[in-house]
Task: structure prediction
Amino acid sequence: MGYTFAEKALARAARLPYTVAGQIVDAQPDVAMSHDNTAAIYQTFKKLGVSKVKYPERLAITLDHAVPAPTTQHAQNHAEVRQFVKEQGVTTFFEVGRGICHQVHSEEGVILPGELILGSDSHTTHFGWLGAFGAGVGRSEMAAIWATGELWLRVPESMKVVVTGEWPQGVTAKDFCLRLMGDLGVDGGIYRSIEFSGAAISALSLESRAVIPNMMAEFGVKTAYIAPDEAIFAYLEKRARRPYTPIYPDADAQYIAEYHYDVSALEPLVACPDSPDNVQSISVIAGTPVQQAFIGTCTNGRLEDIAIAAATVQGKHVAPGTRLLVIPASSVVFQDAIRLGYVTTLMEAGAVFGTPGCGPCMGNHMGVPAPNEVTISSANRNFRGRMGTADAPIYLASPAVVAASAITGVITDPRTL
Result:
């Protein structure tokens, strides 16, 4: 019997010849990632009676969730993180404005195929686009990793999703993720490893591939995986910070479930309030008024997303009573968008840009909606109050749908523009 990606990846991290689903292992992460919550983790770390991080070279820290600091409390939090970085000799640290941790660590070659990445952020599943085992953990777990260099994990059962067909015009990886969750529910992948394969996955751009494992955090998975190919190796050629060995599942690996999707008939979809699996075809809810349109986050704040938005709004203007907020996922994305003219196009259409980072995604920074204002967002979550206001409905969609809706002031199929 062969082994799944998760079984192989955790065997490597636990220094075992093999593992099987359900087994408990003591695994050593190659990277222990945190962000603004580093200060809170440090408070727990100190209670363990340990003064020094065991492997400071494995820590990767980015200030990204509330940047620049909007309050004195946030500023104090950032100051404490900087002090921790200095005291512990952490060398992989990215300051305010560099961007969202998931995007930045990918750009910087911090994350590599086959490695175990544990992060104090639920969207650490993102790193599956590079063929890494990325998983979110709690703050106390991260403190334990700092102290000991390892953490016990249960090897997850694996599910397989094979995606075929040709992507229709105007349909994106985001639409596929919404389709999957709409079909199987936000609890459809709880504590499972999900492997994506098929010609339609290989046909995606690298930026689109990253959307899928990122969104799988909303599906409840422990980790998500796309097999690294030559395009990934080329991307990492001048970025990788250390040698790496990709991991691939065996052909005869055992899966708890297997699903097949043909994207040829897929259309733009929207997740309605208040759950990512409350999915409707855009034709069903087109015309719903929106007051705010937000393009950004670790899911859809990359250059490709901004390019799509710029193409959608070119020569048009944001509708009266609606505002369009764009926050690039990193400073590199922002610079490229400026260089290629996308920023000018969007600003001429009435868009407002924010500092690279998470922005209003978690509701504690710029772009929080007023009560009863409707937001259509390219983010990953639309639970009640997610953006900071309990009575402000959130719809999730691709950047093309978000941009088109900003132009018309109502939820709009971008293909009609």
User: Anything to note?
Assistant: The mean pLDDT is 97. The two ends are 52 Å apart (CA to CA). DSSP finds 15 helices and 18 strands in the chain.
